[in-house]
Amino acid sequence: MPSVISFTGSTEVGRHIAEVAGRNLKKPILELGGNSALIVLADADLDLAVDAAVFSRFTHQGQICMSANRVLVHRDVYPRFARSYVSKVRSLRVGDPRDDGTVLGPLINRRQSEALDRLVRQGIEEGALPLLRGRVNGTLFEPVVLGDVTTDMAVAQAELFGPVVCLMPFDTEEQAVAMANDTPFGLSGAVHTRDLDHGAELAKRLDTGMVHVNDTSIDDQPLVAFGGEKNSGYGRLNGEWSLHEFTTHQWISINRGRRRYPY
């Protein structure tokens, strides 16, 4: 019987696997859902931030656990960022993935497409501003950009897993950190700023397993620890971390003399 259960999938299924593994004294390694935040500070290179944020959300139609569902932008640069972001997203071609010009292909199934569309509708009803609202045709889901999203909206709390993004303005870094951490997930994230040291210090305040300064939230390298916090699972994979997770330590001693015992 295996002593380690490794699972990649939804938080709901991962929680069940962890319960069963615990009852049977098996070690679970879980890579689960995500709701990553990409933070854009006032001093960020906005062209770079826009490119990284678009890639972080729409690669593979947003069907990546590390995708940035939420893009948090300092209010001083929010209008300019939003205009550039929407313009770039609007240029993404949706269609047959066999066509070289296609960027966004279909979602995994119609159920996911319908559930995502319901979340978009709910977000708009709750006050989100549809800066860009594409059409839904079966599993082909054109990009949706929702502006002025707040943390109490369902669309900001869910793992969207599709080409829908929340733009969320903030006024202070303390507010940005609180907003980024206001989620049950904690897999990946990104911080954009021209002050790299400051970006790294801010990254330490985020309750997430991985943070990338001036880059995309989507990154997985074979020799760097991969894993999340909170409902995004636990355990770390890749490189030496996989070796530690899938092996145990055994102590074997050899007494080459004769130990003196007290009795």
From TrEMBL:
Pfam families in the cross-refs: Aldedh
This protein's record includes keyword Iron-sulfur: no
Domain of life from the UniProt record: Bacteria
Keywords: NAD, Oxidoreductase
Residues of the Aldehyde dehydrogenase domain: 4-252
Single Gene Ontology MF annotation: oxidoreductase activity, acting on the aldehyde or oxo group of donors, NAD or NADP as acceptor
Active site: 31
Entry-linked InterPro entries: Ald_DH/histidinol_DH (IPR016161), Ald_DH_C (IPR016163), Ald_DH_CS_GLU (IPR029510), Ald_DH_N (IPR016162), Aldehyde_DH_dom (IPR015590)
Similarity comment text for this entry: Belongs to the aldehyde dehydrogenase family.
Entry-linked PANTHER family: BENZALDEHYDE DEHYDROGENASE YFMT
Record-given protein name: Aldehyde dehydrogenase family protein
Organism, scientific name: Streptomyces montanisoli
